[in-house]
Structures are given as structure tokens and as C-alpha cells.
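INFO  loader      accepted 1 record
INFO  loader      residues=356
INFO  predictor   begin
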Amino acid sequence: MKLKPLAIAAVTAGLGIASWTGCASKPAGTDVMAKVNGRKILRSEVDKYYSNQTSGSQQPPPSLEQAETLRLNILKELIDNEILTQRAAKDGLLATEDDVQRKLTDMKAPFTEEEFQKRLRDRHLTVDDLKQELRRSITIDKVLAKEITSRIEVKDSDVSNYYNQHKADFNVVEPQYHIAHILVTAQPGQVRNLQNSKAQNDAEAHKKIQELLNRLDSGEDFATLAMNWSEDPESSGNGGDLGSSIPESGLKGTDPATRDAVLKLRPGQYTGIIPVKVPGDKPLNGYRIVRLIDRVPAGQRDLSDPRVQQFIRDRLRESAEQLRKAAFFEVLRNQATVENYFAELILKEAGTTASK
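INFO  predictor   done
INFO  writer      dumping C-alpha cells
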């Protein structure tokens, strides 16, 4: 139950933080918006997330009702997180300072210090704010791992039953291609890879991609070279892996040179240097080397296929996790004493009451 962007955030972007006036039912002081087993959730906490979610948008200000809905949803997320955090404290599962520092280091790795600080400023956060949220997030993950994910068992019979019930889903209509690439662009600027390497013009780009091809030909690992030198921020961190497989018809959406080169590859092979052009047949944009990770032929995929088994296990595990997490949280919420003063205020101002 980690804080996440809410659907309504899109329509509330750009609004300043609404004020919360006093109300007779809330405790002394106007800063307490809710309590969970006596632990206060302050207005400043809600304001921080509200500002984070609504800053930087060019959309027009929403109505007061839309703004209050967003604040109410943020408060509910904070209440949910507090319930899980209190359970973690009871079970001795609170995140340690080492846990937080490791996660922070991982988050900072793709950026320079200046870039990282700018991202924090854009989100109206300090390092301490981020560490506090990381501590909460890691703590909740520990609770859910102990109580939910570690207890899920997917049996072979479950996999077999799922396959028999969804056999048609594993009939591959056309060949599928799983590819990775190393991309070097000719445009000047900065890029994120392990070497912070960026070609600044076409001559540098061509020289760099040729050097990388030479290193591949010498036996160096494709994924390692991609992580260190590729200029594609979306895939360099994954060793150049472009993610899910592409159907053969989908290759038609790529440039013809890439499509034709990939169709000639066997799994494990890579292309030579392929010129890359931006849409609209504009001037040369850069160069790439593409590796075929796997090719799945058309036809019925059997249950004996390890990829089929892994897909089914992942699907069954994910489904079980969602159900059990929802049930686990509902039980914890039933056991908690929650006082949502902000919700009470909204009803009072509307002349509505939820009292029995």
C-alpha cells in the first residue's frame, strides 16, 4: 500500500493547496487530519504529497471538490501506510538505516548529483523527505513479504490446470522476436549510462559505435557493453534489453534496415552497424547494433516449454498476491482504530452525517 500517483491527480494538477478550516470533531489544534491507533497524521504530511502530485502541470485549476478528493485520497493512503507500519513495528520488521541508504544509493546511481538534486526540487522534496518515504516503503515491503509473498506456493498441478484452461492463449500466431540494442546518437547532450559516455556529433557517434562493434567481435559481453556505453536511457540499465517480444508484423514498425537485419539473425547473434533515422526521413540521427535474444516460432507452445511454465507461475503468483494482500489489509484495518477528521469535516460542511 505504498503512496502512488492517484488517478485524480491528472485533473487536479496546478492547483494550490487548499486550506483546512477548523472543525469541532477534531482534536485540539488544526494540524491533525487523522489518527491511527492514537498516532497523528498531520496536515503537513498531506500537504507535502499534495504539492508533489500537483506541481509542474500546465493544466487549469480544478474545482474545489476535485482538490478535496485528491487530498482525501492522499490521507487514506497515509492511513493505510501507517496501519502497515505499525504492524511492522510489532513484528520487528522496520527498515534499518542501512536498508534506506542502500535504496537511496541505487536511486541516485543513474544521475549526477546535480541531476538528482534537481529532481528532488522539482518534486518539492528534500533528501530527508525521500529517506522517510523510502523507510516507509521498505518497511511495508518487509511486512508483505513475510505475511504474503513468502507463503504463496504455486503447485505443478496449478500450472497444469491453468494451461489446460487457457491453452488457446499459448498458440503463437506469428513468430516473436526478443531483441536488445546498443544505441549511439549524434545529438550533443548528456545521457545516463555507467560510463556517462555521450557522442556529441556524427563523427564521434560513428567512431564510438565502431569501437563497440569491434569489442563485441572480440568476445565482450553485449549486455555489459550496453550498460556502460549505450545512449538509450530506456534500455541501457537493462543491458540493452528492449523488453517484451515483438511479433514479426511489429518489426514493420521499425526502420527497414533494422527489420531486415533482425530477420536474418539466429538467437545470440548481433547485427553490424545500422544507421538510425528519426521519423519523417530526417537527417541521420545515430547508429545501433541489435542482438536477437530469442525467437519464438509460430504455433502451439506446449506446457513442457519452460517459458510457458514460468509465465503461468508468475501469473498465478501475482493473482494470489493481489487477493491475499487485499484481504490482509482489510483485516488489519478492521483491527485498527482510525479517526479521519478530514473526512468528518467534509461531511459536516455538506450537512451530512455518517453517525449511527
